[in-house]
Specification:
- The chain has 328 residues and is mainly alpha-helical.
- The chain has 2 domains: 41 residues; 250 residues, no CATH class.
- 82% of the residues lie in helices and 0% in strands.
- The protein has 12 helices and no strands.
- The protein is elongated and about 120 Å long.
C-alpha cells in the first residue's frame, strides 16, 4: 500500500513530514495545556481560566490617579460655575427669581410646611433651647446662672447657628438641586440644552448658586432669630430667670461684628453647598440608583466643606484671643 507522500518528490515529501510533525507537536501542547487547566479547575472548584492577579501597587496607583482626576474635574466645574454667576444673572434673571422662590419655600409637600425657612428655623430653635437647658443647669452648679444670656449671644452667633444652618442647607436645598439635575441628566435634558446652544453649566449650575446665596439671607435671618428666641424663652420662662438679667448679659456680649461674620459664614457655606451639589447632580450616571448615590456623596462632601469653611473663618477672625472679654 502506497503512502500519501509516494507521489511527491523527495523535497516535497520532507516538507510535508515536517509540517505534519509540527501539527502533532502543537496538538500535544494543547492537550497538555487542557489537562493542566482541568487539573487546576478540579483543585480550585473554579471553571474559569486562572487570571493573573493585579499588584497592590498598581491598584493603589490607579486609585490615586482616579482621585486626582476627579478632583481636577470637580475643581474645573466649580470654577466655571462660579465664574459664570454674573453671566447667569444677566442672561437668565427670570430663572434666578424662580429658583429663589423654589429654594426658599420649596415645592410639593415641602411647600405645605413652609419650605426651607421652617425647617432651618425649627432646627435652630431646638439648638437654642438646648443652649438654655445645658447652659442654665451647668452655670447654676457654680452659682453663675445669670451668665446664660452670655451663652445665648456667644454660642448661637459664632458656632451653633452657622453649623446648624450649613447642615440644614445641605440636606434641603442642596439635596434637592442634586436630585433635579441628576434627573435631567439621565433623561438627556442636559444634552438637549447643549443641542439648543444653551450653556448648561451657566443655566443650571450658576443660576442655582446665585439663587442659593440670595435665598440664604432671609433664611439665615429667621434661623438666628429663632435661636435667640428659644434660648431666651427657655431661660426666662421655663427656668424663671429675670428678663432684665438675661437681656443685660445678652446685649453686653452680642457684638454687631459677630453677626456680620456669622452671615458671611452662612453665605460662604451656601455657595459651597450649591456648587458641590450641582456638580454631583450634573455628572450623575447610572439611572435613578445613580442619582441617589450622587445625592449621598454630595451631602457628605458639602457637610465636610461647610465644617471646614466654618472652622477656617472662625480661626481667621477670632484667632487666639477670640475677641472675648468676660465682664459686666
Amino acid at each position: 500500500m502506497s503512502g500519501p507522500n509516494d507521489n511527491l518528490g523527495p523535497r516535497a515529501a520532507a516538507a510535508e513530514r515536517e509540517r505534519q510533525w509540527r501539527r502533532e507537536r502543537q496538538h500535544a501542547k494543547s492537550e497538555q495545556g487542557g489537562a493542566t487547566l482541568r487539573k487546576y479547575a478540579s483543585r480550585t472548584g473554579n471553571r474559569a481560566e486562572p487570571e493573573e492577579e493585579p499588584s497592590r501597587l498598581g491598584e493603589t496607583l490607579d486609585t490615586v490617579l482616579d482621585s486626582i482626576r476627579t478632583l481636577g474635574e470637580q475643581t474645573a466645574f466649580i470654577g466655571t460655575a462660579l465664574g459664570s454667576t454674573v453671566d447667569a444673572v444677566r442672561r437668565y434673571p427670570g430663572e434666578v427669581l424662580r429658583l429663589i422662590a423654589v429654594l426658599g419655600m420649596g415645592t410639593g409637600a415641602l411647600a405645605v410646611i413652609g419650605g426651607t425657612v421652617v425647617i432651618i428655623g425649627f432646627l435652630t430653635l431646638t439648638t437654642g433651647a438646648l443652649i438654655a437647658v445645658q447652659g442654665y443647669n451647668t452655670l447654676s452648679n457654680v452659682g453663675i446662672e445669670a451668665l446664660t444670656g452670655f451663652l445665648g449671644a456667644f454660642l448661637n452667633v459664632r458656632f451653633i447657628a452657622p453649623a446648624t444652618a450649613g447642615v440644614a442647607l445641605a440636606a434641603t436645598i442642596g439635596a434637592g438641586a442634586t436630585a433635579q439635575l441628576g434627573a435631567m441628566r439621565i433623561n438627556e435634558e442636559i444634552d438637549a440644552l447643549e443641542s439648543m446652544a444653551i450653556r448648561p453649566i451657566t443655566y443650571l449650575a450658576s443660576t442655582r448658586i446665585v439663587a442659593g446665596v440670595l435665598a440664604v439671607i432671609p433664611i439665615y435671618t429667621v434661623a438666628v432669630l429663632m435661636s435667640f428666641l428659644a434660648t431666651r424663652f427657655g431661660t426666662t420662662i421655663i427656668y424663671g430667670q429675670s428678663r432684665g438679667v438675661y437681656d443685660h448679659y445678652f446685649s453686653s456680649f452680642l457684638h454687631p461684628t459677630d453677626l456680620l461674620w456669622s452671615f458671611i459664614e452662612a453665605l460662604s457655606m451656601a455657595a459651597a453647598v450649591m456648587a458641590i451639589h450641582t456638580y454631583y447632580g450634573y455628572n450623575a450616571t447610572g439611572g435613578p440608583a445613580g442619582v441617589g448615590e450622587a445625592v449621598g456623596r454630595a451631602v457628605r462632601s458639602s457637610i465636610t466643606a461647610g465644617v471646614f469653611i466654618l472652622l477656617t473663618i472662625t480661626l481667621s477672625v477670632y484667632g487666639q484671643s477670640g475677641n472675648f472679654h468676660l465682664s459686666g
